[in-house]
Each structure stands twice: as structure tokens, then as C-alpha cells.
Amino acid sequence: MLALLSTLEPLIYAANAGADRAHFEALLAPDFWEVGGSGQVYDRAFVLDTLEERQRHPREEAWHTFDWHLRPVDERHVLLTYALQQPTRLSRRATLWRRTTDGWQMVYHQGTPVL
């Protein structure tokens, strides 16, 4: 399960060849929300618009993920945590994933800068 979710996870911050809005809509649960590194809260619609924009105008950035951990929450939910190294900052990430009949969906995501 960790291998699968760690391949789906980067789709929310890196441009992905072939991914479109419908793909992102399937990945983000209807009740999805995010807390960004600034502490700002973002709803699903904002995140979908942002992902779509990144697809239209991808940036070349060397992002590296590491220190992946998966913790079960209940029979349908798991918490995925990891570190993301971007060119100018390091952050810790946490995503709550929900297993549905159609596969896995993100319910919540948070990025916290490491100071």
C-alpha cells in the first residue's frame, strides 16, 4: 500500500504528463481540503484549479521526497507522511487517504515547513 500511495501522492504538487482535471477530480475526495505551508486553508475547488494550472504551465523543479511512513487510522483510512525537499525549502507532508470502491482518494493534505 505504501508503494501505491507514494506514487499517487506526488500528483498533487508535480506536473504530470497525461493528467487532466478529471484525473485530479477522481484523486481528491469531494470533502478534500488542504492546509498549506503558510497556514492558509484551501478547498478542493482551489486545489483543482491550481493543479490544472500547473499542468498547463509546468515548471522545471528538482523536488525530492523521502522518509515515507504509512499509519493505519481505521479500516478505510491511512495517514501517509513524508518529507519534501524543494529547491528553496524542506517541508514535512501529511495526507489522509480514504479507500473507496473506486480506489484511493485524498481527504486532507498538509505541508509544514521545516525551519
Structural class: alpha+beta
Architecture (CATH level 2) name: Roll
CATH topology value = Nuclear Transport Factor 2, Chain: A
Strand numbers in spatial order across the main sheet: 2-1-6-5-4-3
By DSSP (H or I, 4+ residues per run), the number of helices equals 3
Shape by Cα distribution: globular
Radius of gyration: 14 Å
How many beta-strand segments?
6
H/E element sequence: HHEEHEEEE
Low-confidence parts lasting 5 or more residues at pLDDT below 50? none
Number of domains: 1
- Assembly state: single chain
Percent of residues in beta strands: 35-45%
Mean of the pLDDT scores? 91
Largest sheet: 6 strands, mixed
> Mind telling me the CATH class?
Alpha Beta
Question: In angstroms, what separates the terminal alpha carbons?
Answer: 30 Å
- Helix fraction, binned, reads 10-25%
In words, what does this structure look like?
By secondary structure, the chain is an alpha+beta fold. It has a single domain, classed as Nuclear Transport Factor 2, Chain: A (Roll), CATH 3.10.450. Helix content is about 25%, strand content about 45%. The protein contains three helices and six strands; from the N terminus they run ααββαββββ. The chain has helices at about 1-10, 20-25, 45-55, and strands at about 30-35, 40-45, 65-70, 75-85, 90-100, 105-115. The chain has a six-stranded mixed sheet. Strand 3 (about 65-70) and strand 4 (about 75-85) form a beta hairpin. The longest helix is centred in the middle third of the chain and has 13 residues, at about 45-55. It is globular. The termini are far apart. About 15% of the residues are buried. The model has no long low-confidence stretch (mean pLDDT about 90). InterPro entries: DUF4440, NTF2-like_dom_sf. This is DUF4440 domain-containing protein.
